[in-house]
Amino acid sequence: MITFSELGLEPKVMQSISEMGFEEATPIQAKSIPVAITGRDLIGQAQTGTGKTAAFGIPLINKISTSEDKIVALIMAPTRELAIQVAEEIEKLAKFKGIRTLPIYGGQDIGKQIRALKKKPQVIIGTPGRLLDHINRKTIKLDSVETVILDEADEMLDMGFMEDITSILSLVPEERQTMLFSATMPANIRKLADQFLKNPEHVSVIPKQVSAPLIAQFYVEIHERQKFDALSRLLDMEAPELAIIFGRTKRRVDELAEALQKRGYTADGLHGDLSQNQRDAVMRKFRDGSIDVLVATDVAARGLDVSGVSHVINFDLPQDPESYVHRIGRTGRAGREGTAWTFVSPREIDHLHFIEKITRHKITKKPLPSLAEAIEGKQKLTAEKLIEVLNNEESNEFKGIAIQLLEQYDSVNLLAAAMKLLTGERKDVNVELTPEEPLRAKKKRFGDSKFGGNRRFGGSSYGSGGGQRSSGPRTGGRREGGWKEGERRDGGTGRSYSKDSRPKSDGPRKPRSNFAETR
Ligand SMILES: Nc1ncnc2c1ncn2[C@@H]1O[C@H](COP(=O)(O)OP(=O)(O)OP(=O)(O)O)[C@@H](O)[C@H]1O
Ligand SMILES: [Mg+2]
């Protein structure tokens, strides 16, 4: 265990860290902060939810001098929501030093951004497209930038941002520190690293196979037309604190969100066709708990950190293993437990096995949730709510009437009636979704020993057996020792397979018009 005080950080940065409630450094932080402080280029890889943002944010804020009035650091992220979130975390880290940060992303009024840029922020956190827009308008100048960080670099490549990133980086002085972070490192990342990083240190944290997995992973084999009813049952059975449901297309997300609302769930959809105001509103509602189900495309798969997400449900199987890993990584964060369910149509089973193979993690098969289980789940939830009210002594004003009722009626019948009222009826609205074509894996790639299973997950095991987590409370607190996983510094061996060895279904995502997203 490494405390932040051992890392030689400035007192004002330490003050931020302690205000954020971080006590010990996570493994990726303990490994990368000392390297980053030396000014070396760095490639950082560690599992989802293990604090990579602060792993680059802390050394960054530590090194910036408060007297600067130029942009000295640039952070790029693939989606707007992620840029906003990273900016918030960097701002917290910068609070006591008084360093100015500014998020810059598409969909937001450019005039407003230009006005904010006049206040001379030192750190810009943005999405590549809008950054380039400002650079072309000369409202952002990069000639004083000393540090560049690419968060989720592999996703930015997959989204076709290579050209934009190249143009942006060509305007940043050669003499700089460049860092690149992600939970997954597919082969194409090497091209980026070779082009933009100088003799980088690879820092990766790979969990030991024996470590208890924080995300229990299940799948249900199911026909397309049964999926929605199964989803309702699953939500009732599992009673998530907050859930994210991933759908394959924007249409799917819209239809699902609407169908869930019709059945009485507080759900809303997030995808790239919504206006920025709508996107912001949905995220705000999800973060403050006014909706408890977020239905999203892969736009929400990367980096988003919303505490309380106890469940991820892949309503549609994700396109590739990376997407699977990032999607399910929206739960089980910061030492908490989480549960991931994936719906797989019979024709997609091969694709699922491919994901298992690449992630080296067995996904446990479960039967379709039954109506009885759904009812039981709802009843349990009602009982929990009831007991909470009881424990908090929030029901004193009902005691008089309770005594009167108990004089006339049987106590069990009375309580059962109250629970029925409290549980409410699920509106059994019939729902028709537009069917989606199943995904199919390229069989001929299977069993390709060259592929090496999970190189892109760091060359070692990415996790172990689902469903073995301890039976703690449903959403769990921070689990003791949650960060203390096996660690390994990778000498760079983990990324040496050729692009050809990637399966077809896993190729660059840009041409898939169905998936085109304005991130
Ligand atoms: N040292 C720490 N102690 C406790 N909590 C921490 C620590 N570092 C980060 N966290 C918290 O852990 C959560 C996950 O961090 P973060 O979003 O940086 O993960 P990540 O590794 O970038 O995940 P992803 O791969 O999904 O982007 C955040 O809520 C963050 O505030
Ligand atoms: Mg992250």
Automatic annotation (TrEMBL):
Residue ranges of domain DEAD-box RNA helicase Q in the record: 2-30
Bias type Gly residues, positions: 460-469
Single GO molecular function: hydrolase activity
SUPFAM superfamilies: P-loop containing nucleoside triphosphate hydrolases (SSF52540)
UniProt key word Nucleotide-binding: yes
Entry annotated with the keyword ATP-binding: yes
Helicase ATP-binding domain location: 33-203
Basic and acidic residues bias: start-end ranges: 477-509
Organism in which the protein naturally occurs: Paenibacillus gansuensis
Stated name of the protein: DEAD/DEAH box helicase
